[in-house]
Specification:
Helix content is 32%, strand content 25%. The chain is built from three helices and eight strands. The radius of gyration is 17 Å and the shape is globular. About 17% of the residues have low confidence. InterPro entries: Longin-like_dom_sf, TRAPPC.
Length: 178
């Protein structure tokens, strides 16, 4: 059985309200909170097994990262993921699966080959694991099966880009409740 780590950074007591409980609740100051059905995905990263950034897509409108910053984030995440596997007190730990901070959540999925897929999204996004697995399926279908793609190299596949955009859009539409 594989185990993973979930890291919770200092965060004010934030409760995630789900559609099952009506989506309404009281915040720490007594204010009424409404569940946001459309989770914002800020960015998507794909890192090869060596820690190299092979794909980056920014979905946020504010604070776009330049190329060097995205390379640094990917390298830092790869290193933290590897260190967490070695330092975890749990045997068979596969690394960090979720990092929660005050202003974002980082969800990660690692394939059996060591390729890591991670999204940076708004806090409280609950469906990102399934989305990452779907992105992995798109990666296997449109990148790995492409005869012109070289392993461990940056992804430049138009069909992958198109299907990824559709998957992200479908995910957002599904969360809006149509």
């Amino acid at each position: 059985m594989h185990q993973s780590l979930i890291i919770h950074c200092e965060r004010t007591s934030r409760k995630v309200y789900s559609p099952s409980d009506g989506g309404i609740g009281k915040g720490p100051g007594g204010e009424v909170l409404q569940f946001n059905r459309m989770a914002a995905i800020y960015s998507l990263f794909i890192i090869n097994k060596s820690g190299g950034l092979i794909f980056y897509k920014d979905y946020g409108s504010a604070g776009r990262m330049d190329t060097n910053d995205s390379l640094r984030v990917a390298s830092l995440w790869h290193s933290m993921h590897a260190i967490s596997q070695q330092l975890s007190p749990m045997a068979g730990c596969t690394g960090i699966e979720l990092l929660e901070a005050d202003t974002f959540d980082l969800h990660c999925f690692q394939s059996l080959t060591g390729t890591k897929f991670f999204v940076v999204c708004e806090p409280g996004s609950l469906h990102m694991g399934a989305l990452l697995k779907h992105i992995y399926e798109l990666y296997t279908d449109f990148v790995l099966k492409n005869p012109f793609y070289e392993m461990e190299m940056p992804i430049r596949c138009e069909l992958f880009d198109l299907n990824l955009a559709q998957a992200i859009q479908k995910d957002r539409v599904a969360l809006m409740g149509r």
